[in-house]
Amino acid sequence: MKTSGNEKPAAAPRGKNRDRTRTKEFILQVAIQEFSEKGLDGARVEQIAKRAEVNMRMIYHYYESKENLYIAALERVYADVRQAEIRLDIENLRPEMAFRKLIRFTFDHFQRNTDLIRLVMGENLLYARYLKQSQLVPQMTARLRDLVAATLKRGQEDGQFHKEIDAQQFWLSMFSLCWVPVANQHTLSWTLQTDLQDSTWKEQTKLHIEDILLNYLLV
């Protein structure tokens, strides 16, 4: 059960269908929203239990502590984006089209999943204290890093891409360009006097980012 930053989790499963797996998943989805809205310090297990329609004892049974639940929330939002990136199957596309697809996906995913944005921004304020307790996140990201590097290499060997481009720097540039308009949409909308949440503006921005990155890549 996946939710975006603007949606509420579906109603908690009831009766015979309310099994361990589905209940644990529902608690996690509620926790993601609670932590993204209020941060680790502001979120309360009592409120998560109330929203998930379970007792607090059940939350502690599944996750042991508020901190473990928070780490699970971080891991889930990272897993959602990493798994979706792998499903793009860019290794079977021509290098240029592979990166165009990845850029468009990255921009759209950030736009649709503001819980991810808020959770990661909050964890940055904590100097990644809890993210550093997760081995899963760097493992998942390593797979994407290798995929980006392999795609870049294919394009360089074909003569499509400049030889001197570093794969990790390229990915970081793509991430940054797609992240900033979402992470800073409220402050930028006011300072620029432009509605960064406008659908036309979003589409134009996505195309602009794609042009910037492909012009950098292509020979």
Key structural traits:
219 residues, 10 helices, Tetracycline Repressor, domain 2, disordered N terminus, 0% strand, mainly alpha
How would you describe this protein?
By secondary structure, this protein is mostly helical. Helices cover 72% and strands 0% of the residues. Helix 1 packs across helix 4 (66-87).
Set out the fold topology.
Layout: H1 20-42, H2 45-52, H3 56-63, H4 66-87, H5 95-112, H6 114-125, H7 136-157, H8 167-183, H9 185-192, H10 199-217
Helix pairs in contact: 1-2, 1-4, 1-6, 4-6, 4-7, 5-7, 5-8, 5-10
DSSP E strands, number? 0
CATH names the topology as Tetracycline Repressor, domain 2
Fraction in beta strands: under 5%
CATH superfamily (homologous) name: Tetracycline Repressor, domain 2
Which segments are poorly predicted (pLDDT under 50) over 5 or more consecutive residues? 1-7
Give the radius of gyration.
19 Å
Task: Label the overall shape.
Answer: globular
Number of helices: 10
Termini gap: 43 Å
Q: What's the CATH architecture?
A: Orthogonal Bundle
Quickly name the level 1 CATH class.
Mainly Alpha
Helical/strand content category: mainly alpha
**What is the percent of helical residues?**
over 70%
Biggest sheet record? none
**Total domain modules:** 1
